[in-house]
Write a structure and sequence with these properties.
28 strands; five-stranded mixed β-sheet; about 725 residues; seven-stranded mixed β-sheet; 20 helices; alpha+beta
């Protein structure tokens, strides 16, 4: 049986002729993943693995095996840069491919298992991948020294060429790769002094950009197997509902529908093509059991959340005596309640997977896997096979924002259940539509924040009391740190600080969303501190700086953002600026947004100035791109996005017409300043998102005198 990566119509339009790559079952595993990811075959002869991450072909092409998935955030380029730097390779000879699923060999050092998330790809790999490059370099040098009969200390490497100046001998990597693979790897290779970096710290385009723009990049949707079925599952409109019974008579009449089976998650339709699967699914009549389902509306959930605020809650931070400070003589108090809706991740590529069973009983899975080890275990468990006989071939993915990183791999369990229900005699492609994705749950939870602050006669903020109600993303009954992160560790010098959390259980499945808890705590903290500073008669930037004396890196990005925005200078008529600064995933970001009132009375964001301190800037081009992307993503959410449960608990939104992303004409100009730093690199995939919402809300309040208490902002203004 062959696996083919074929061009869809859109790819044919972009690239002209179709790309077809045949992969026999005997070649699957890492080789298949490499082929499907476009890893170079090199010249004739064996490809040498110098270690778990570095592979060198006879023609000198170096392929880095990335333990982190590439769904647009840049690890393929970043990790390859780290290897190339220490290898002293020429950038033109570098390639990248997805590593196979192996939780031990390719573990994320921050998690202990293989996975991508938490903006950790570069942070956890910085030293590891540099050592992989340095190890390969040392082995190549040792091979050259042995081959030429010279001292290794006399050999130099630069731009992919190995030289011995005294003898005039010279070689590329490929000629020595086979011999190098037999040399002993150094236990602790010497790494470069940062002052000698050639590639780290310089701009380069992402390695995956050319294929993504010419149509050659392979996503799961492009993977097609001979005799493959399409599987689509009908899910309930209420979270927690289960199938009571169903009638598939009309569905089976649809030409191309092969079978219909009930599985744990709903009713699966198997068809010869996507159109038939969609038509067959639409023709099903399903009786849903709502006895354990969520039948409240979003408004009813908010109301129930507010009732909890009268109780004690789970203590996250309690410094000083907040209650006494709030009731002291001569103080001025300010209260705020902010509500945050459910948010879908809405990546461009909905969930999909291809599953194939070989004659020996082994199973191959092709999908954009964020946690391949967990996906592998889920397939093995559901299908009843030895995990050693399951191969997860990680494909490029069209975004995630947290959606593909799920406890226990529920999506893969659904795909595996569908595969098992089909009999596993034919390959299947299990697909979710956009509607399935928007209505499929695993949302950023609903939250209610209640805040109270106090200002003394001298204009000093002397007390802060914050309560946060919402579901625990980590499914904890005690304090979930991800609920209070960004609030419990608030940096402002306020002597009386109390933060409490309230865990709520709902049938609605929730998940981390880009920046996790910081997506709501950053908004609540930065809008409320801005209101307090305004009430105290203080400038938003200078007021913050006065409270950040013990947090110099945060203060530095705030100063830099103010500098590039020329904070305090006159602003065009009808516009105002707002500021916010936030630390998430050990990265410091300050943003200033310039806002006006649009034609329909909505906020119009013209420009965002952004300053970021993420330690060593491995590739400034990617850092700027991630800040820009995080700003656009966060801006769309804070202005427009919400998932609501209507009367009776049914999901209201279904696609981009009512869960809209930011339009291209709505994207503001973004200017990014990267703080030069020698600190270890930290994450950039998520930290650009939290500050943009409060920066816009603060500008809006200064412009209209209306504080933002409900998100999304545009909906709140028009409801």
């Amino acid at each position: 049986m062959n696996i083919q990566s074929i061009q869809t119509t859109r790819r044919g339009f972009l690239a002209g002729a179709g790309l077809v790559i045949g992969v026999s079952l005997a070649m699957r595993g890492r080789a298949a993943a490499s082929l499907l990811q476009g890893a170079p075959a090199g010249a004739a002869g064996p490809v040498q693995d110098l270690n778990a991450f570095v592979r060198i072909a006879p023609d000198g092409v170096v392929t880095v095996l990335s333990k982190h998935i590439e769904f647009g955030q840049g690890p393929y380029t970043g990790l390859t840069t780290l290897v190339a730097e220490e290898l002293d390779a020429d950038w033109g000879q570098m390639r990248v491919a997805a590593a196979p699923a192996n939780d031990e060999l390719y573990a994320n050092l921050a998690f202990g298992i293989q996975g991508t998330g938490g903006s950790t790809a570069i942070a956890n790999s910085y030293e590891q991948m540099r050592k992989a490059g340095a190890t390969a370099r040392a082995m190549l040098v040792a091979a050259a020294a042995d081959e030429w009969g010279v001292s290794a200390g006399e050999i130099t490497v630069a731009k992919g060429r190995i030289r011995h100046e005294a003898s005039g001998k010279e070689s590329g990597f490929g000629e020595l790769a086979e011999k190098a693979a037999t040399m002993e790897a150094p236990a602790d290779p010497v790494l470069k002094d940062p002052k000698d970096f050639v590639l780290i710290g310089t701009d380069r385009p992402k390695l995956d950009t050319p294929e993504k723009t010419n149509g050659q990049a392979v996503f799961t949707l492009d993977v097609i197997a001979d005799d493959m079925l399409i599987a689509m599952v009908a899910h309930p409109a209420h979270f927690g509902a289960t199938v009571k019974g169903f009638d598939d008579t009309e569905a089976r009449k649809v030409p191309g529908v092969i079978d219909v089976k009930q599985i744990t998650q709903g009713v699966a339709v198997f068809a010869e093509n996507t159109f038939a699967a969609l038509k067959g699914r639409a023709a099903l009549t399903i009786d849903w059991d709502l006895s354990a389902a969520e039948t409240r509306s979003s408004e009813a959930i908010y109301a129930d959340y507010r009732k909890l605020l009268a109780s004690e809650g789970l203590e996250a931070t309690n410094n000083g005596d907040t209650e006494s400070a709030l009731s002291a003589d001569g103080i001025t108090t300010l209260r705020s309640e902010i509500t945050f809706p459910f948010l879908a991740h809405a990546p461009m590529e909905p969930l999909d997977a291809v599953l194939i069973q070989a004659e020996d009983g082994s199973i191959d899975c092709y999908n954009g896997s964020q946690f391949p080890g967990q996906d592998k275990a889920a397939i093995a468990d559901v299908c009843g096979v030895d995990p050693a006989k399951v191969r997860v071939n990680t494909q490029l993915a069209g975004g995630s924002f947290g959606r593909r990183a799920q406890f226990g791999s529920p999506y893969m369990r659904e795909a595996a259940e569908a595969f098992k229900a089909s009999g596993m005699t034919r390959p299947i492609k299990h697909m979710w539509t956009r509607e399935d994705d928007i209505r499929g749950g695993f949302y950023r939870p609903i939250y209610v924040h209640s805040l109270e602050g106090a200002i003394d006669r001298d204009g000093n903020i002397v007390a802060w009391d914050q309560q946060i109600v919402g579901q625990s993303v980590m499914k904890k009954t005690d304090l979930d740190e991800s609920t209070v992160e960004g609030a419990a560790d608030m940096p402002y010098g306020i002597s009386n600080l109390r933060v409490r959390a309230y865990n709520v259980e709902l049938p609605v499945p929730v998940l981390w969303w880009r920046s996790v808890g910081h997506s709501h705590t950053g908004f609540a903290v930065e809008t409320f501190i801005d209101e307090l500073l305004e009430k105290a008669g203080k400038d938003p930037v200078e007021g913050r700086l006065a409270l950040l004396q013990n947090d110099p890196r945060r203060a530095n990005v705030l100063r830099k953002a103010a500098e590039i925005a020329d904070w305090g200078s006159p602003v065009a008529d009808g516009r105002q600026r707002g500021v916010a600064v936030h630390k998430s995933f050990n990265t410091y970001v300050a943003e200033i947004a310039e806002v006006s009132i649009g034609e329909r009375g909505e906020p119009r964001v013209h420009k965002v100035w952004c300053a970021v301190d993420c330690g060593v800037a491995v590739n400034p081009n990617i850092i700027r791109a991630q800040m820009e992307g995080g700003i656009g993503y966060g801006l769309g959410a804070v202005l427009f996005d919400q998932i609501t449960l209507g009367e009776g608990g049914e999901i209201v939104q279904s696609n981009f017409h009512d869960y809209r992303s930011l339009r291209i004409n709505e994207m503001p100009e973004v200017e990014v300043a990267i703080i030069e730093s020698s600190e270890a690199p930290t994450g950039v995939g998520e930290p650009g998102t939290p500050p943009v919402g409060p920066a816009v809300a603060n500008a809006w309040r200064r412009l209209t005198s209306q504080p933002v208490r409900q998100l999304p902002l545009v909906k709140a203004l028009t409801s």
